[in-house]
Amino acid sequence: GGMPAEGTPTLDFAVAEVSDTQTADHYFKTAYVGVYVYSEGHGDVARGDRILTADGAEITSAADLEAVLSQKREGDTLALTVSRRGETLAVTVTVTAYSSASTAEPS
């Protein structure tokens, strides 16, 4: 655990790793385990989207997503496929750098 280091590549929305169907049903009303978008982002993602792939790599855990992100730099784009209400969609998000000060919206 712990906070990421300053400057760690990250996304502008939170994700939640769901490893049991009960949690998936409770929070996201689905039966699938995986990595879900937990907060509204600024890109094309929506809360409750399940991330299937990132830049072509299969995403089954938060660690998978972090591994892809670790190859990125701030300002890069990341191509995701997500499952939303039974549809598979291709979305693009922008990589940002983690900052402990970035809880406020950047002006």
Characterise this structure:
- The chain contains two helices and eight strands.
- The protein has helices spanning 21-28, 62-69, and strands spanning 9-10, 15-18, 34-37, 50-54, 57-58, 77-84, 87-94, 96-97.
- It is of the alpha+beta class.
- The chain is globular and about 35 Å long.
- The mean pLDDT is 89.
- The strands form two sheets. Strands 2, 3, 4, 5, 6 and 7 form a six-stranded antiparallel sheet that branches. It has a two-stranded antiparallel ribbon with strand order 1-8.
- A hairpin with a 2-residue loop joins strand 4 (50-54) and strand 5.
> What average pLDDT do the residues reach?
89
Could you state the order of secondary-structure elements as H and E?
EEHEEEHEEE
Based on secondary structure, the structural category is alpha+beta
Number of helices: 2
Strand content: 25-35%
Cα-based radius of gyration, to the nearest Å:
13 Å
Number of strands: 8
Low-confidence stretches: none
Major β-sheet annotation: 6 strands, antiparallel
3D shape: globular
**Helicity range:** 10-25%
Distance between the termini: 29 Å
What's the SSE blueprint?
Layout: E1 9-10, E2 15-18, H1 21-28, E3 34-37, E4 50-54, E5 57-58, H2 62-69, E6 77-84, E7 87-94, E8 96-97
Antiparallel strand pairs: 1-8, 2-3, 3-4, 4-5, 4-6, 6-7
List keywords for this structure.
single chain; 107 residues; alpha+beta; six-stranded antiparallel sheet; two-stranded antiparallel ribbon; 2 helices; 8 strands
Concise account of the structure shown:
This protein is α+β, with helices and mostly antiparallel strands and 107 residues long.
